[in-house]
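Honest question from a wet-lab person: if I give you the sequences of every part of a complex, can you actually get the arrangement of the whole thing, not just the pieces? Trying it with mine:
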Amino acid sequence: MTVTAPEPQFCAYTGKPLTEGVPVFAAALLGLEPPRYCVYCARRMIVQVSPDGWTARCSRHGEIDSKSHER
Ligand SMILES: [Zn+2]
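Yes, you can. This is the full assembly:
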């Protein structure tokens, strides 16, 4: 059984709802820029930047990091 990730609902940088015509920032998709808000619930995430990337944690949806975007 495969678990599919929910579709992002909010902008990772503004926390605003993603609607048609609002592009997802390319930097977020590439993992270059740490997100500030959870894309699933718009909570502010705890962001830690390290020399080789970043880690962002949502209290509800868990942790993501810059490497998780490289899949
Ligand atoms: Zn979340």
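Two things worth pointing out. The first helix runs from residue 26 to 30. The CA atoms of residues 8 and 33 lie 16 Å apart.
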